[in-house]
Predict the 3D structure of the following.
Amino acid sequence: MSALLQVQDLEVTYPGPGGGFRAVQGVSFEVEKGTTLALVGESGCGKSTVAKTLVKLLEPTGGRVLLDGTDIVGLKGAELQRYRSRIQMVFQDPYGSLDPRLTAGALVAEAIALRSPGLSKAERLAEAEGFLDRVGLPAGSVTKKAPEFSGGQRQRIGIARALAVRPEIVVLDEATSALDVSVQAEILELLADIQEETGTTYVMISHNLGVVRSVADSVVVMRRGRVEESGGAKAVLGAPQSEYTQLLRSAALDPAAMSGIKPREVVRRFGAVPVAAK
Amino acid sequence: MSVIDLNDYSVELMTAAGVLKAVDSVALTLEAGKTVTIIGESGSGKSTTAMSLLGLLDHGLAVSSGKASLLGVDAVKDRRGVDALRGRRVGLIPQDPMTALSPVHTVGAQLRQAVRRGRPGTSKADAARVAVELLGSVRIPEPETQVKKYPHQFSGGMLQRVLIAIALAAEPEILVADEPTSALDVTVQASVLDLLLELQERTGVAILLITHDLGVARLMSDTIHVMRRGRFVESGPADRLVNDPQEEYTRKLLAAVPSMTDAPAVAGAKGPTASGRRRADAGHAESDTDSAAPAAANEGEAR
C-alpha cells in the first residue's frame, strides 16, 4: 500500500523581480498513516511554505501532492471542501490564531459545523465541549473567550478545533515553540495520546531538534528550499550524514550532554559561521 | 570583587488586581568576569528582577526593597545613581533585536550615540572610528559599509550583534542580557553565544543572563538560579544544578527539555518526556494558570 501523503518534486516560486524567489524546489517525501513526519530547518528554509501547500493556503508552482494517490494540486469547489476536512492545521501563534471575540465553544463548534452541517447549534456546542474536555481544558471553558486563556490553554483550543473536523492529517506549524518547556511537554504528550487513540497522521514543522527527536518517526531536513537529508528520525538525528544536519545537531544545546565540556568548545565552530546581511 | 549583590531583594508591582510580589526575597552575587543566570518560565519574575535592578521599571508602579548593590550603588534608594550607570558601566542586551533599534536612524548613528553617551568627551570623529571598531569586534564583516545601513537591512542574528556592540560601546563592567538569543535560529544562537564567551574572555565583563533555556544556561553560566513565582527555588554551580538537581521543580524543568539523547524517557513510550506522562487533567491546570496570571502583569512575553 502506498503512503497516505506523498509529496513529489514540489516547487514554490514567489513572484518578484528577476523571475521571482524560488522558496521550495525539488522537495519530495512520504508520510505513512498514523505516523509523524517532521520538517526541520532554520528560518527561511521553506518548511512553512511546504506546510502551506499541504493545507492549500498556497498553490505550488510545480510538483504534486497526493493524498491516497489523488493529486490535490488545483482542487476546486466541493472536492476542495472535502479535502480541507481531511487535513487540518494547528498554528504557531496561540495569541494570533484564535478570534478573541468568540468563546472556545464557538471556535470549536464552527469547525464541527463544517464537518456536520446538519447538527443544531446545541448539538454542536455539546460536541465542542467534548473536544475541549479531551484536550484537557477545565470544565466551563466552553463559554470563555480566547483572551481568558493562557498560551498553553489556547494551543489546546487550537488542537481541539483541528480535531473537531476529524481530520486524517494534522499539520502542526511550530505548535509548541511559543510555549514554556513544561507546557510544551504536556502538549506533546497530548498529541501523542491523540495519535495513539485515533491514528491521526502528523506533519510537524519545527526548528527544535529535541522536540523532533522525541516525537517524530521520520525527518526531512530542509535548507534553502531543498531537502538536505531525510529518513527515519533515529537515523537522521542520531547519526546525521550531511554536514548541515550535523551542524544543526551540535547547535541544539542539550543541557544533559554538556557535562565536563568547556563552553567555548561547544560553540566555537559557530564563531566562523558567516552571517550575511539580508 | 562583586559587581552585583542582592540580598532579601523584593519587587512589588502595582497591578489592576492589586499588589503582586513579582520578586520575593532573592539573593544573588555576581563577581567580575563571571556569569550568573536566572532561569525560569514565563511570569517567574526573572526579567522583573533584572529590569528593576537597572531602574527600568516605572518607579510609581514597581517598588523594590531589601538590599541591592550595583557596582557599589544602592539600587533600592539611589535611583539617580543607577540611571548614571546605565549605558556607561552597565550595558543591556535586550531580547528582541528586531524592535530594539530605531528604524529611521542608521546603525552607525545609533552606535555613535552610544559611544558618546558611554564615553563623555569623545569627539565626533573618534566616535565614528570606535563605532566601526565595535562592529568589527562583534564579527560583522565589512563594518565600514555596514554602519551606513538601516536596521531593516540586517538579519536577526546581525541585529543582535549590533545590539551587543551598542551594549559594549561604553566598555561596561556588567552586561545584562535578557534572553539575548531567544529570537534566533539555533546556529545563529550558537555563534552569538560564542561571541559573548569570547568577549568575556577578552574583557573580563561580568554577565547577568536571563533565559528560559536550560541549554543556554548550562553553557554560559558559572552559577544558575532557578526562579519560580518570584522566588529562587534552587541555586548552585551550573554543572551541579543540571547533573544533580536537588529540588523537585528543577528536576521537572530538566525533564521537560526534549533531549537529543536516549535518556530517561519512559521505556517504550513514544511520549516526549517522563514528566509529560502525567495525566493531562492533573498536570496542565497548574502550570497553565501559573504562567497565565503573573505573566500579564509581569513580563507579558510570548516566545
Remarks:
- The beta strands of chain B are 2-15, 18-31, 35-40, 62-70, 73-74, 90-93, 174-178, 206-211, 223-228, 231-237.
- Confidence is low (pLDDT under 50) at residues 263-303 of chain B.
